Amino acid sequence: MDFIGAYSLGNLLFLLKGLGTTLLVAFIAIIFSFLIGSILGILRYAKIPVLSGIVALCVEVIRNLPLLLIIFFTFFALPEVGIKLSVTMAAITALIIFESAMLSEIVRSGLNSIEKGQIEAARSSGLTYMQTMQHIILPQALRRMVPPIVSQFISLLKDTSLAVVISLPELLHNAQIVNGKNVNYVIPTFLLIAVIYFLVNYSLSLVARRLEIKERTNRKSTGKVLPAKHQAGEMMQ
Amino acid sequence: MISFKHVNKHFGDFQVLTDINLEIKEGEVVVVVGPSGSGKSTLLRCINRLETITDGELMVNKKLLNSKDTNINDLRKEIGMVFQHFNLYPHMTVLENITLAPRKALGISTAEANETAMFYLNKVGIPDKADSYPSQLSGGQQQRVAIARGLALKPHIMLFDEPTSALDPEMIGEVLDVMKTLAKDGMTMVVVTHEMGFAHEVANRVVFMDHGRILEESEPAAFFSNPKEDRARLFLSRVLNH
């Protein structure tokens, strides 16, 4: 084991560059898969004839394929039909396809978890479907979705390392190159990137926990932290 | 105000309502009683189309309920509904619960909606709970908020679907008192309930249902002292003598 050699400035900078790629790919994939996953989840929840069925079929197929296969597909198969993607684009596309399917299921089950009585109360007071969605279903469902969505984001971030197979220069890939220089670097390098993955992902789950706790205290508050708009009601009493 | 003519409803092969004929006039309080699964709640839920009827004619406020020309959202604004499990919105304060539909469905200003909400919260006796969340209230208080929420639309009709069935016994009284006041004020009310005392005291008419049919329709005094149908007599003996 050669910690000093493995942690030379050049190696560290090279690994940091890998981390940069990992974070960039994960960030773009998270944004797009969240948007697409939400839309797909809502479409499936809304039970629109034909459309919801097609969405369900696609989601089920993708969810049951290994991500690695999808990465191979976007990088090696798409060029065969004339779509040539760079390594980074192929990795991002594969992640978006896979994670959108996973997230759409989280969104759908979050929406489904809202009791029927809530919807009936809203609709029976003359609110339209869209108003009910906007004011009753989505705000409650989103709160329930935060923990599973964040763990899906953590999965996504870790899964970027699968793109090592198409030589995306991300953290694990760069670690392997450092290891290739000297067999004594292997353990120090793996230890270091393990710590990096852990710190990044753990801080994500800390943010999620913070959000959850904040949410819980908000709902149970006894009127001490109410926003200003409620004050009108108090004055009238 | 509400008129059922030969209304049938099926859930798949199962017939829930059979040949329902019922007229409810403005200002009337009609209490629907009957054993579980007799179709009482379904009958009530047809009135604001939470359930659709299979055939027959159902008129509410001179509008045909199963017609394409009827804007169901507009019609629902004229009908308040109170549920067994309150169905308050847990992520909103009491005030927001009450003002949501007036603001979004009727389009009135927040200030005016708040004023109306406070008026009805006073009426149900809990103006001090305006800024609480539903989870901070007792069941009885939650149900009173739900009644205020229904009233805030200034509806012509109020529907009550077993409003006291999910309440602790000591909270039933406070909800029934609010409903009695409402009846005295002349509100048209259709109430599905197991509270025979309430039916006896407040109802203009009692409707007895079993197996999806209306078996008897009488004034409460007549219904409770001398029910015409054997099935109604059996039902009363079971609910009154325990």
UniProtKB/TrEMBL annotation, chain A:
What the entry lists under Pfam families is as follows:
BPD_transp_1
Where does the record say this protein resides? Cell membrane
**In this protein, which residues make up the domain named ABC transmembrane type-1?**
19-208
Write the signal peptide boundaries. Answer: none
CDD domains, alphabetized:
TM_PBP2 (cd06261)
Superkingdom, taxonomy of origin: Bacteria
Provide the alphabetized UniProt keywords: Cell membrane, Membrane, Transmembrane, Transmembrane helix, Transport
Similarity remark: Belongs to the binding-protein-dependent transport system permease family.
Q: What is this protein called?
A: Amino acid ABC transporter permease
Specify the species: Fictibacillus fluitans
Lineage of this protein's species?
Answer: Bacteria, Bacillati, Bacillota, Bacilli, Bacillales
UniProtKB/TrEMBL annotation, chain B:
Which PROSITE patterns does the entry mention? ABC_TRANSPORTER_1, ABC_TRANSPORTER_2
- Give the organism the record lists: Fictibacillus fluitans
* Keywords from the UniProt entry: ATP-binding, Nucleotide-binding, Transport
A Pfam family per the record: ABC_tran
Its family?
Belongs to the ABC transporter superfamily.
For this protein, the record's InterPro entries field holds: AAA+_ATPase (IPR003593), ABC_ATPase_HisP-typ (IPR030679), ABC_transporter-like_ATP-bd (IPR003439), ABC_transporter-like_CS (IPR017871), MetN_ABC_transporter-like (IPR050086), P-loop_NTPase (IPR027417)
Report the GO molecular function annotations.
Answer: ATP binding
Give all residue intervals belonging to the ABC transporter domain. 2-236
Instruction: Indicate what this protein is called per its UniProt record.
Output: Amino acid ABC transporter ATP-binding protein
